[in-house]
Amino acid sequence: MEAEYTNSEIRILNAGKIILNLSLPFAILGVYIFVLWMLLPYSLFLSMLTLMFIYFVPPAGKESVIPIGIALGIPWWTVAFSIAMMDILSTLFMVLNFDLVLKIPIAGTKWMKTFMEHGESFFRKHRWLEKLSTLGLAIFVMIPMQGTGGIATPIVGRMIGIPPLQIILAVIAGALSGCFLIALGSEFLKDLLVYNLSLGIIVIIAIAVCAAAAWFLWKRKQNRLKERKPAHRI
Q1: At residue 128, does pLDDT exceed 60?
Q2: DSSP symbols for the chain
Q3: Contact criterion met (CB below 8 Å) for 129 and 140
Q4: Residue-wise pLDDT tens digits, 181-190
């Protein structure tokens, strides 16, 4: 025999579900911060906590926050996992509360619209990622960019019809892979600077030159695409 609920009981159950969905990511974050507090020296704990929250502030991204954390003396695996956790927990929050966030005046209009346009533009330029579905989302999270991929990815995933559980799994895989790769590379450069300063500086300059060249070529390609659009319309 199926249980029957009154309207008031249904409202209470719905309210309880909303509270649980809103509080669960923050509760997990609180537990994780407590674990960091237990494991790290207090000065490093404060540094790691600061970097975890700076990660949400543009133009910060994993490609800048992780090397800074390692330079401050925080173990590379701790920095990598902590930043990945911010992506994972922000994704969990978005997946559980997507419809609710849409109703918030500023976040649900201008803020969410910005992330949707960013994700749509990214996948429009990389159609092959959309065909990969969940794997494509994981790659989207891995790619270094300003801000957390844990917020944009659930929006993009929902736009292309990927189920919530697969979105969360994609973010877990992509965030951990991306963060640990950046952390390992940063740790390698740090050790290289310690043991061979000249070689370390040369490698850093080479990386900077390659990054600048890649950025220049990308901007050049973007400008060419913009120049072609008016001609195409005519």
Answers
A1: no
A2: ------HHHHHHHHHHHHHHHHHHHHHHHHHHHHHHHHHS-HHHHHHHHHHHHHTTSTT--HHHHHHHHHHTT--HHHHHHHHHHHHHHHHHHHHHHHHHHHTSTTIIIIIHHHHHHHHHHHHHH-HHHHHTTHHHHHHHHHS--SS-HHHHHHHHHHHTT--HHHHHHHHHHHHHHHHHHHHHHHHHHHHHHHH-HHHHHHHHHHHHHHHHHHHHHHHHHHHHHHHHHHHHH-
A3: yes
A4: 999 988 888 7
